[in-house]
UniProtKB/TrEMBL annotation:
This is SEC-C motif-containing protein. It holds the Pfam family SEC-C. Residues 133-168 are annotated as: Disordered. It comes from Butyrivibrio fibrisolvens DSM 3071. InterPro entries: SEC_C_motif. Coiled coil: none annotated. It comes from the Bacteria. Residues 158-168 have a biased composition (Basic residues). PANTHER family: ADENYLATE CYCLASE-ASSOCIATED CAP C-TERMINAL DOMAIN-CONTAINING PROTEIN (PTHR33747:SF1), UPF0225 PROTEIN SCO1677 (PTHR33747). SUPFAM superfamilies: Sec-C motif.
Length: 168
């Protein structure tokens, strides 16, 4: 069975004890934070290796590294084949800095996008700008509702129901 399936079966289990799942995620988030802190020290360096080599490098188990690779995948310059990866699969952690920051904001992972290592990569204004861009990209703007007796938005002066709303 591919590593990613094992990770997702374990981390998103419907049948697991809720306390065990909470402990798994609490432990995972701490390790994830440490890995990102290391990666962000040299953000332009592309870290490569097998899943096992990277797990050893960052002092985590294979499943934690698999979860990390699953999480960072959308922020990579070149996506890894995470669906089929095994321990000996070579993967890259070459990430797009702006995309990674925005994805951390989208995931509401304040423990990640507030890491002090970001201060060396982007100044405060740039971080605020990226934060705002990400938040605004998820905002849905609904057009104001037009009721039958409202003036038609075309400017004809007629009621909507007698103008463009006639066939609605």
């Amino acid at each position: 069975m591919a590593l990613l399936k094992k990770w997702r079966d374990m981390a998103y289990s419907e049948t697991a004890n809720k306390g065990d799942l909470q402990r798994l995620w609490t432990e995972y988030f701490g390790k994830e934070k440490d890995i990102y802190a290391e990666l962000l020290k040299n953000p332009d360096e592309e870290v490569k290796g097998t899943v096992k080599e990277l797990a050893d490098k960052y002092g985590v188990d294979i499943m934690t590294m698999t979860g990390f690779l699953d999480g960072i995948d959308e922020s990579l310059k070149v996506a890894n084949d995470i669906e089929n990866m095994e321990e000996d699969t070579v993967v890259s952690l070459g990430f797009d800095k702006e995309l990674l920051y925005k994805n951390m904001v989208a995931a509401e992972a304040d423990w990640l996008y507030n890491l002090p290592e970001w201060n060396e990569i982007f100044d405060e204004d740039k971080r605020k700008e990226l934060y705002k861009e990400q938040k605004n990209s998820r905002t849905v703007h609904n057009a104001p509702k037009i009721y039958p007796n409202d003036p038609c938005p075309c400017g004809s002066g007629k009621k909507y129901k007698k103008c463009h709303g006639k066939n609605a």
